[in-house]
Amino acid sequence: MPWMSDQTTVKATAISLIYSSADFPQIITRCAHEVLHGFT
Prior knowledge:
- The protein is mainly α.
- It has one domain (2-38).
- Helices cover 95% and strands 0% of the residues.
- It contains one helix and no strands.
- The chain has one helix spanning 2-39.
- The longest helix has 38 residues, at 2-39.
- It is rod-shaped and about 50 Å long.
C-alpha cells in the first residue's frame, strides 16, 4: 500500500523538522557569534 510509505515519510519529515527546530536557536547563536567575530 503506497499510503503506508507516504505516512512513514511524513513521520520522518515531521521528526526531522522537530529536531531542526530544536537546534534552530543553537544555529542562530552560532551564526551570530561568527558574524560578531567577523566584524571585530
